[in-house]
Amino acid sequence: MPDTTALKSTDATAVDAPPATDAGPAPGKPRSLWSDAWHDLRRNPLFIVSMALILVLVVMAIFPGLFTSASPRDANLAEHYLQHPNWGHFFAPDWLGYDGQGRSIYARVVHGARASITVGVVVTIAVTITGLVIGMIAGYFGGWIDTILSRVTDVFFGVPFIVGAMVILTSFEQRSVWVVILSLAFLGWTSIARVARGSVITIKQADYVVAAKALGASTTRILTRHILPNAIAPVIVVATIALGGYIAAEATLSFLGIGLAEPTVSWGIDVSAAAAQLRNAPYVLIIPSVMVSITVLSFLMFGDAVRNALDPKMR
Questions:
Q1: 218 burial class (0-12, 13-18, 19+ CB within 10 angstroms)?
Q2: Using N-to-C axis directions, what is the helix angle for 105-141 and 177-187, rounded to 10°?
Q3: Of 93, 235, 282, 291, which one is least surrounded by beta carbons within 10 A?
């Protein structure tokens, strides 16, 4: 006779036991390109250092009074003519010395950040919007629209950037910050337009774009809801890297005497004025030049970090 008690115990155990499954842990919510990029950026020392420098420069440009109470235009030739830096007086007017007109170099370095940061940021926003619109229209519609816009882009692209800006700026008697911004933005949108056009040509062939067209979605909706979010990543990469170039271009034009002019406080203006005192007081030229280099390098490092995070091939 079989042991019925053992059989019942075995059956109960089999019934009560949970069904076996080969499935692993429930997968988490998939991350988007932007969340993956932010996850990589937070662990990138290059991004952290560049962001820290950029934040300091932006705060310096917006609130210069937090760094110094001295005026960048107060000149005292009798007492401060080419006075050497006093490295022990941190953040004092004489910390970095005085220039050939008796003005505090430290105060001019702090207040000069506003012109450079303003030119770089506003020009970048202007060229990004212009290039993105032109590139999206050319890439999406194609045909004769693409041909015309591409040839116009080639014409602007063929003009040397600095030389073209010099020609434009020489036609103005008063060269304010906004005049310099308009001249740089007028010539600087071509690279972004080319990148946007290439991205749109690739994306418009995707299944979700074809499905949106089949469902009767309008052109505006397709461009803004389907193509733009997927084509913006390479444009942002180019724009962030180009921002440092626009700051360097403003400093170059001001150094040549064609960009910003007095009474605007600019690092390029100070470098140009300090060229005459290079042998007697090299610090007058070196200090604003180092500030330009640090600012440009910060934005270039930021752009490189963003490119590495957004480009799947760099992972």
A1: exposed
A2: 30
A3: 282
